[in-house]
Write a structure and sequence with these properties.
Blueprint: E1 3-8, E2 12-17, E3 21-26, E4 32-37, E5 44-49, H1 51-60, E6 63-67, H2 86-97, H3 99-111
Parallel strand pairs: 3-6
Antiparallel strand pairs: 1-2, 3-4, 4-5
């Protein structure tokens, strides 16, 4: 089994097995990172990595999770209307607190 050398910010260099390292790759922009738990202090560390290094970790047997950017990032940044204020939040809280008002609001949304 391959040994991976990583650096804990508190403990310095440590040696890890492939099962102790997890990597993530963003499908949209190819940003990659890896995480591990320090075997000395139990601190979780997350660090950025370049694709060539990610490929080396994969070849060594490290599992890679692929994730996607939230869809909201692709939405227009144009904002219509006024900003939500404290009173709006209180009104929404009251709406959620009343089963009758909440049911009426959901019914109105369902009607279009």
């Amino acid at each position: 089994m391959a040994t991976i050398r990583a650096t804990c910010t508190d403990c310095g260099d440590i040696d890890l097995g492939v099962r102790e390292v997890r990597a993530r790759l963003c499908a949209e922009n190819d940003q990659a990172e890896y995480r591990f738990v320090c075997t000395v202090c139990s601190m979780v560390s997350v660090k950025q990595l370049q694709l060539p290094t990610l490929n080396l970790l994969v070849e060594a047997g490290v599992h890679v999770d692929t994730w996607h950017l939230p869809a909201e990032l692709a939405e227009s940044q144009q904002v219509d209307g006024t900003a939500i204020d404290h009173n709006d939040v209180l009104d929404f809280h009251n709406l959620l607190s009343s089963e009758t008002e909440f049911a009426e609001a959901v019914a109105k949304l369902a009607q279009g």
